[in-house]
Amino acid sequence: CVQLTHRKTEDFLVSSLSKHDNDRRHLGLAGSADLWVISDDPDHKGYYRIKDKQRGEELFESVQNYKGHYVFLWIPKTVINDGGASWKITGAANGDSIFKNKKFNDCLWSKGKDDWVGAYEGCDHSEYQWRITRVAC
């Protein structure tokens, strides 16, 4: 298991209690951490899947777009195998990580605790950087 900490705010990536609809759950940043499981993507070599440990819901970049794509957790019914739930994890200069989506080539982003978690093309500053901390499951 891991915790994902936003570089700019030092807040943790968390799943929300609120759902967007029957298939998707919102994400946010908070002061206390959720546990995440990062595993190799069996469909896309060199990419990873990121799941909320508690619910088993996968992080994915949606086609829904408003000045950037929405990122949700997929409430399991069917498997997302079109690259929307596939993430390449690369290192930033400071040792943090950047999560880049296979389908859209955007990076996981947030401006801060009161803003949303989405995905944009920039990938080039602290709003795109995340610290991965291994913890016991």
From TrEMBL:
SUPFAM superfamilies: Ricin B-like lectins
Superkingdom of the source species: Eukaryota
Protein's UniProt name: Putative 17.5 kDa salivary protein
Originating species: Culex tarsalis (Encephalitis mosquito)
Species lineage: Eukaryota, Metazoa, Ecdysozoa, Arthropoda, Hexapoda
